[in-house]
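hey so i finally got around to running both of the ones u sent me last week. sorry it took forever, my laptop kept dying halfway thru and i had to restart like 3 times lol. anyway pasting them below in the order u listed, first the sequence line then the structure token line for each. didnt double check formatting much so if smth looks off just lmk and ill redo it

first one:
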Amino acid sequence: MNIHEHQAKALLKTYGLPVADGVAIFTPHEAEAAALELPGPLYVVKSQIHAGGRGKGKFKELPADAKGGVRLAKSAAEVAANAKEMLGNTLVTKQTGPAGKQVNRLYIEDGADIARELYCSLLVDRSTGRVSFVVSTEGGMDIEAVAHDTPEKIIAVDIDPTVGVSAKDVAEIVAALQLDGSAAEDAKSVFPALYKAFVETDMSLLEVNPLIVMANGHLRVLDAKVSFDNNASFRHAELAPLRDLTEEDAKEIEASKFDLAYVALDGNIGCMVNGAGLAMATMDIIKLYGAEPANFLDVGGGASKEKVTAAFKIITADPAVKGILVNIFGGIMRCDIIAEGVIAAVKEVGLKVPLVVRLEGTNVKEGKAILNSSGLDVISADDLDDAAQKIVAAVKTR
């Protein structure tokens, strides 16, 4: 689960982290009053969407030379003018794709006198099985570009979970970020607090970009991006109200109701597969034959007929889908259950696009017999390669 910047900062503030004062607003008429609550005289008006690159983004409804999704203002009246222009409009960034995201809330924050911009994130390093700090002196920039062009500027520090952030770890991070004076002193509390917040709330990502050194020499969290591990949500009922459904794909929301692993993509071939690895391979082979998957959808190893039906309905509800590939290897999952779920869904919503089905494994003969006797216009495939070629060809001839 992702949350907004203002929510992330409010959470980090409870852990004692240095965060500027700010107020979230949802309507233009709240803007001026929000600014007047802050010290000023410089304010930052920030679009709150679940995407990066907001400062360089462009609003669809505004002229090309209009300011982006993060703006500076020098008076409460200027804050209000910016809020009126930004709220309700669609912001397009590198991470939103061309469709963009509608800005439904803003964060009015007190300005900061910045001396240096740094990068800091925490994530789980799968190779070590530990939480790792990833830091760089190149904050405020595209960290992917830094990693590609100057990887030596990115330093990772793994944290021993039995010890936590030690003085040695802090010293290593301080050296990597070239901190001294007040900033180095602040680091002794800032980095342990970041780690504590990450672990205690089961985050999967905590990114502070930039972490700044202010003109007075102290550290401040200037921006914060937080994602929580959905598998740990049962432990954190207090975080559930932070979820903003308007920022999520409607199909992904529906899939979550049935415990389906679903991610919407930009292609036109819908995929229903069991097993994450097989789902990735299915998407790869679709791309190999010159098409693009419309989704990642893993129905899991032991899905019921109802779950399969729901998955198929979610795929067919996507207007971008021009063909569907069902690729099932029956281990725990039985092929006849898949076949029954597909038939039930088609009877309910209809079938207006080509459907290719590849079944293999447990009860494969029964599954194929069910499909063959259903009267559906199903294209059968012998293996994954055959299935991918058939669905790509079927979509291209439409």
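and the second one:
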Amino acid sequence: MEQPTEFVFDIPVGAGVATRANADGPPATPKDAATVILVRDGADGVEVFLQHRVKGMPFAGGMTVFPGGGVDRRDADTSVAWAGPEPSWWASRFGCDEALARALTCAAVRETFEESGVLLAGDADTVLTDVSPYAAARQALETREVSLAGFLAGAGLTVRADLLRPWAHWITPEQEPRRYDTRFYVAKLPEGQEADGVTSEASSSGWQRPADAIADAREGRRMLMPPTWLTLSELAAFATADDVLNAPREIVRIAPTLVRENDQVRVVLEKR
């Protein structure tokens, strides 16, 4: 689906993104990050898992987002057992080297588990259906007491990269003080698993139809950043979760620019 070249992000000047639209000085160096769009089939079509971030968070505080976060240097550990497309395939799709592709995919699995309780792992032939034995490990991952590689090795688990698909590539605008070079993945909720909101980074979470989430944003009940809004717009076009996973995607890096116009911030999307 073709992305629009311009998007008006309606936030009053003095709050959130709008405050930072005129930031001075050299731009911050983006940190590599991974985001996972979890989808499932609901009674009325595709549903997506969304989290409302705690207002005090230094990045995207108060925003409604998909699970995700920055890459930990330990996510690049080559000892992680792996099933599915190799890092070289992910590197070709996301336009990076194999080491970063491995780290990004492992970060996607780790962050999804930390923030939603969904673990995209198992062995070479089966996917986990019961993650309850790993509740303590989930907390230890979030506090960085253990690495993903250490956890998986101890539990005898394998990263199931075949459960993920590449979706998009966004870079935080240069005007932002905290910037991320984020690869977006999409994954279907594994059978038997449940997503929850047991994370210190979210005040609430849950499943919602993409069109309903956009309606909430338009009516002021939630705040969405442009990548989230536009991704939800794309997802609203699909009938089933499998349709989402099977959709052909051309991954192009999108680098928005923020332009302040009176009481609005206009987000101009530039593909690179």
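quick thing i noticed on the 2nd:
Residues 114 and 138 are 6 Å apart (CA to CA).
anyway thats it, ttyl
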